[in-house]
Amino acid sequence: MTEPSAVPADPTNTDAAELTVDDLTVRFEGLAAISGVSLTVERHEVFGLIGPNGAGKTTLVNCLTGFQAPTGGRVLVGRESTVGWSPMQFREMGVARTFQAGRLFKDMSVLENVEVTAVGLGLGRRRAVERGRAILDWVGLAGKTSLRAGALAYTDQRRLAIARAMVLPPAFVLLDEPAAGMSDAECEGLMVLVSSIPRTFVCGVLLIEHNMRVVMGVSHRVHVLDGGKTLAEGTPAEIQRDQAVLAAYLGVEG
Amino acid sequence: MIGFLQHLIDALALGSIYALTALGIGLLFGILRLINFAHGDLITVGAYALIVPAADVTARLMIGSWTPAAVVVAISMIVVVAALLTDAAVFRPLRTASPPTLMIASFAVSYIIQNGILMFYGARPKAVDFWSGANVQITIGALRVPLLQLITLAVTLVLMAALTVFLRRTPQGVQMRAAAEDFRMAQYLGVRGNVVIGLAFAISGVLAAAVSMLYITQSGSLTFQMGVPLALFAFVAVVIGGMGSLAGAVAGGFLLGFIVTMLQAYLPPDLRAFRDAFAFAFVILVLLVRPSGLLPSRTTVERV
Q1: Residue from the list A119, A150, A164 with its beta carbon closest to the beta carbon of B174
Q2: What is the pLDDT of residues B247-262, one digit of tens each?
Q3: Domain parsing of chain B, residue ranges
Q4: CA–CA separation, B37 vs B40, rounded Å?
Q5: ipTM for the whole complex
Q6: Selection from B18, B24, B75 nearest residue B48 by Cα
Q7: Domains by residue range for chain A, with CATH
Q8: Assign residue A76 a region: left if phi > 0, alpha if psi is -120 to 50, beta otherwise?
Q9: Pairwise CB contact (< 8 Å): A124 & B187
Q10: DSSP of B38-73, one letter per residue?
């Protein structure tokens, strides 16, 4: 497995050092999806977020990117309050994300998918194409720039989604289950890519993933949610030994 | 054989008009999920803008008497402004409304435009002598072809090529295609929704203006409902082409032009009055075989 090629880093438009969730609560008509969760993602790390289905992982990511307004608590980019920010404002302030469903523009070419993002973020077309090619090179899609995005293999679609989030390097990127449906070999490639993000772009990664080998393999710290509450946080080694986590996942009495 | 070729050229010219109109409707449908029945009335606006506003039966040209280049620019601007106004006044406040609501709103816009024209120009059809020189016949071998039909075809090809280049090669065009595929995702990625939608209305205005001028040159008469059948046929073209697909809208337009022209030419004289019924029966057949149209848009199919 080769190291991803270097990408000239562009300064991001925020110097925020961390992305913070402080005592966050989200209720849907009285039903608490998240209650009292606090965590901090730093720019030099991969931060894993795990939990059984329905634990509130995606709701949390939605709060961190403006797709869902919290019922209580705060989301901070650096020290800035994000109350009332739209998803686009989050992106402009350096918080990008990918989606479980990919949400690629399937009828457009691979290059156009990243180009349109760069243009949307304010680049001229030539610079957008330049950046687009560099970032596609980085994710390993250099030879496929003119293919229709919908015609890409599943793994490559995941890579394209990451490229689209990283085209103007954000300060933080939230990856929503990037390894879902990948084979072990494909996961290896993804792990190399994800773990290179903090070094290459000075960009913190919040990684939501069910594949434990991937999360434990690339994360510096892991946060475990269950039923909308924090169950544990620690290094992968600590989490793998945590009785409460084991109970939640395996149904064993703690 | 010569007869058939003659009809084929007629079909291409009529198909061009349908295709241009269908493109205007298809473009807005792609981005807004709006089926804009008022598009036909924008064509009417462009045609009436040629003459002096008065209720007289014989129309006196005003803008229509300027040099061709000035006419093209002025009419395009007027129709573009009209299209943008319909957006600002009606469709923008309905951005989050459902597609049926948008369609019904477009009927309202259509009635308002028609009645506005009635107020200023009167209800009687008007004869207008606009660019009638373009109706001369030119002879190519054994074929006699009205010059206007060749112009119509050429204008259509140029506009389609220009639209294709715009959508493929310019940042605005790429953003428009992204918005047509997944509007919310495009917005999240920084595509300015209202800018893209405004551009789409402006382009549909240019397409409507082109149809106004070509159509009025050929028909030589103005009525306040002249755009309605055009919008109806163009909508049918969009449906048989595949909702949400621009290539489909063009294909549907030309196919419909072909069907209508050939029915007109080859139906027994007694049945010609029912030409449109036969045409629409054919459309039903097409949809029975290909329910999502000739060239369905992949994204629309997934979404529905």
Answers
A1: A119
A2: 999 999 999 999 999 9
A3: 2-303
A4: 6
A5: 0.83
A6: B75
A7: 18-94+170-250 (3.40.50.300), 104-167 (no CATH)
A8: beta
A9: no
A10: THHHHHHHHHHTTB-S---SBPPBSGGGS-HHHHHH
